[in-house]
Design brief:
The protein is an alpha+beta fold. Helices cover 27% and strands 38% of the residues.
Length: 143
């Protein structure tokens, strides 16, 4: 009985330490990049959009992710581009990973520009913002 207990204990201790498994590396491609903002594609499943937070002296990069279900990357590009054609001062909102992401449009020196705004979930009172982007820069991100 002692031998059986010893063997069972030995078996479970070895089994618990041998549960290391290697994870396949997912291919990540940068789709588009402009100053302080870039979009990357993770495999065929999702996208990450990174932007440098201009409200922080550290200038950390903030990101949001979304899955590419029903060609959502192209839909997001269309939504953002449509905002340049509609009235300035408007703000579009999307949800990504439970976070609210805003696209705010302003007119600066006669040109419509857009910035990404996001309340980061780890600090809900802190608003992060990207630099102002032109329509050409947005098109470079998605093409």
């Amino acid at each position: 009985m002692k031998k059986l207990f010893f063997l069972a204990t030995l078996f479970f201790s070895v089994a618990s330490y041998s549960q290391i498994e290697f994870v396949e590396k997912t291919k990540i491609d940068v789709v588009g990049q402009v100053e302080f903002v870039y979009l990357e594609k993770v495999g065929n499943e999702s996208y990450n959009l990174f932007y440098k937070n201009i409200n922080n002296t550290v200038n950390e990069y903030i990101s949001f992710s979304f899955k590419n279900v029903d060609n959502d990357a192209a839909k997001l590009h269309q939504i953002i581009a449509r905002g340049f054609e509609e009235s300035t001062g408007s703000r579009y909102q999307i949800k990504a990973n439970g976070d609210a992401i805003y696209f705010k449009y302003v007119r600066e020196q006669g040109e419509v520009k857009m910035k990404i705004q996001q309340y980061v979930s780890r600090e809900p009172d802190v608003l992060t913002e990207s630099k102002l982007l032109t329509l050409d820069e947005v098109n470079k991100l998605f093409n």
